[in-house]
Amino acid sequence: FDTVRLLVRRPIPKQDVKTEIKLINFEDPESFQLALEGVDVVFCAVGTTQKKVGGDQSAYRKVDFDIPANAAKYAKATGVQHFSLVSAVGANAKGSNFYVRLKGEAEDAVKAARLPSVAVFRPSLLLGERSEQRTGEGIAQKLAPLISPLLLGSLSKYKPIQAEAVAAAMLREAKRMSLDFHVYHFEEMSNTKPERQ
């Protein structure tokens, strides 16, 4: 990659000479689409928490559904060749749980954009450092090494995974640019063999 363009809501420090920072309003279609002009690959790893939105499901939806759905739509319009989306294990647009239903709806919207190459990554608990401390996740991260070996067969998709491993799988798939729509769970992210959908 010659350039890594970061689309952000708030100013952030520039990390690298290859980094290009675009401050945009994600609710402004023109701003969003212009920011994707000339882009070949999109990595969409946006997400919020109930705490950040104060339990407001419509505010949650603006981040976890609207941004990925619009990113895919504008990516298609600007000629993006590959789109990677971080979703969640169990994502299902028909699910009874708000979170997994929202993630499933976002996946469906990305698929409906009909980009040439789409990879969806469905991690369970993401391991690694966080800027925001969440008590439940902190406890889960400590228990992860004990629970993970017990999750075998069809339960392996619930194994916790390092955020860096997900990022590495996203990068490999972007370089491979397999045509069509692929979904990765724990095993596929670890082995980088996609499940065709």
What does this structure look like?
The protein has six helices and nine strands, in the order E-E-H-E-H-E-H-E-E-H-E-H-E-H-E. The protein is of the alpha/beta class and 197 residues long. The protein has a five-stranded mixed β-sheet with strand order 3-4-5-8-9, sandwiched between helices. Strands 1-2 form a two-stranded parallel ribbon. The model has no long low-confidence stretch (mean pLDDT 88). The longest helix has 21 residues, at 57-77.
Which range does the strand content fall in?
A: 15-25%
The low-pLDDT segments are none
N- and C-termini, Cα separation: 28 Å
How much helix is in the residues?
A: 25-40%
Q: Strands of the biggest beta sheet: in what spatial order?
A: 3-4-5-8-9
Please work out how many helical segments DSSP would assign. Answer: 6
Overall form:
globular
Give the overall average pLDDT: 88
Kindly provide the radius of gyration, computed on alpha-carbon positions and rounded to a whole number of angstroms: 17 Å
Record field, number of beta strands: 9
Strand and helix order: EEHEHEHEEHEHEHE
Major sheet summary line: 5 strands, mixed
Q: Determine the structural class based on helices, strands and strand pairing.
A: alpha/beta
